[in-house]
């Protein structure tokens, strides 16, 4: 079981997840959508592809670009398509 929390609120939880480069990637159905707001931010990884970002919002506080995912990953990263990973103070327990 893996769980992501920010500001004392669980924002994702699943017993099924992927770990890539030390980051836990949660399947899309495991995130609590009410806490996620799409942003216009994108970054590129040489072997995973182009990442898109979400801001995490809890109790009116926003953690900009604290979550990312790969909607169209390269073949080598197909296992994390649409899975969400976190940083910027989001706590991951597994």
Automatic annotation (TrEMBL):
Protein name: Uncharacterized protein (DUF427 family)
Gene3D superfamilies for the chain: Domain of unknown function (DUF427) (2.170.150.40)
InterPro entries linked to this entry: DUF427, DUF427_sf
A Pfam family: NTP_transf_9
Domain DUF427 per the UniProt entry, residue ranges: 3-88
Annotated source species: Longimicrobium terrae
UniProt superkingdom: Bacteria
